[in-house]
Design brief:
The protein is an alpha+beta fold and 245 residues long. The chain is built from four helices and eleven strands.
Length: 245
C-alpha cells in the first residue's frame, strides 16, 4: 500500500506568511502617525529664543561696560598717584599748604567784644528804721536809712547826703526833713555787692523844720506818734511808726 497524502497536507506546506498590509487589515492596530506642530507654535518658539538671546547679549554688554569702567578708574587713580595729584584732580604736593593757609585765619578768630552786664537798679531798695519804737521825753530817736542790693550783680549807688532825706511826719503835719537845713550836700558812690547793704544813721534832736530852713523859733515835736520815711534819690522806703513821750 502506498502513502496517501491528506488533502490539506500540501496546502499546509505551501502556505506563505501574509503581508503586513494584510495583517493590518486582519485587525491589528497600525502605528500612529507623528503630528507636526502648528505655525503658531513655531512662532512662539522663535519669539522665546529671540528674547533669551537678547537677555544674554545684554548681560554680556553690561559686564563688559562695568569691567571697562573699573579698569579705567584704576588706571586714572594710578596715573594721579604717579603725577602727585589726588583722584579729585588737586595737586597733593600743594594740598597741605593750601589747607594750612585756609585754617590759619580760623585758628585765631577775632573776639567780638560783648557788653558787660549791669545791675538792675530796680532791685536796689531803701528801708527806714528807728533804734526804738518809743522814746521817753528826754530821749532822742536815731533814724536809720538802709539801702540794699537785692540783685545778683554788684551795683554802684550814690549814698551821699545829696541823695538822702530823713522825713518825719505826724498825720498831715510835715514835722521835720534833714534836707531843709542841710549846710552842704555831697555825693558818695559806693559799689554794693549782691545781698549787701549800706546804712546811714541820723540822730534827730526832736526839732521841727521847714523848707528853706526858716526860723521856727526853736519849736520841738511834742509827745505823740510819728512816721519816719527814708528817701534816697527817687527811691522811697515804707513808713516806720514810732512814739515820742
Amino acid at each position: 500500500m502506498g502513502r496517501q497524502d491528506t488533502p490539506n497536507s500540501g496546502a499546509g506546506r505551501n502556505r506563505s506568511p501574509k503581508p503586513a498590509a494584510q495583517r493590518t487589515a486582519a485587525g491589528k492596530t497600525a502605528p500612529r502617525a507623528v503630528r507636526k506642530p502648528s505655525p503658531a507654535v513655531y512662532r512662539r518658539r522663535r519669539l522665546f529664543a529671540g528674547v533669551a538671546l537678547l537677555l544674554v547679549l545684554g548681560l554680556i554688554a553690561g559686564g563688559v561696560a562695568t569691567l571697562t569702567t573699573l579698569t579705567g578708574g584704576a588706571q586714572q587713580a594710578s596715573s594721579a598717584q604717579e603725577s602727585g595729584q589726588d583722584p579729585s584732580g588737586q595737586d597733593s604736593s600743594t594740598q597741605g599748604t593750601t589747607g594750612a593757609q585756609s585754617a590759619a585765619p580760623s585758628a585765631s578768630p577775632t573776639a567780638t567784644p560783648s557788653a558787660s552786664p549791669t545791675c538792675d537798679q530796680k532791685l536796689v531798695t531803701v528801708k527806714a528804721a528807728t533804734n526804738k519804737t518809743s522814746y521817753a521825753a528826754d530821749e532822742k530817736p536815731v533814724l536809720s536809712l538802709t539801702v540794699t542790693n537785692g540783685g545778683k550783680l554788684p551795683c554802684k549807688v550814690n549814698i551821699g547826703t545829696s541823695q538822702m532825706d530823713f522825713l518825719v511826719t505826724s498825720g498831715s503835719d510835715r514835722v521835720f526833713s534833714s534836707a531843709d537845713c542841710q549846710a552842704a550836700s555831697t555825693d558818695l558812690v559806693k559799689t554794693i555787692a549782691p545781698g549787701k547793704s549800706e546804712t546811714a544813721n541820723f540822730p534827730w534832736p526832736r526839732n521841727r523844720s521847714v523848707q528853706g530852713c526858716e526860723n521856727v523859733d526853736g519849736a520841738v515835736a511834742g509827745a505823740g506818734y510819728y512816721v519816719f520815711i527814708a528817701k534816697l534819690g527817687a527811691k522811697v522806703s515804707p513808713p516806720t511808726v514810732f512814739q515820742l513821750g
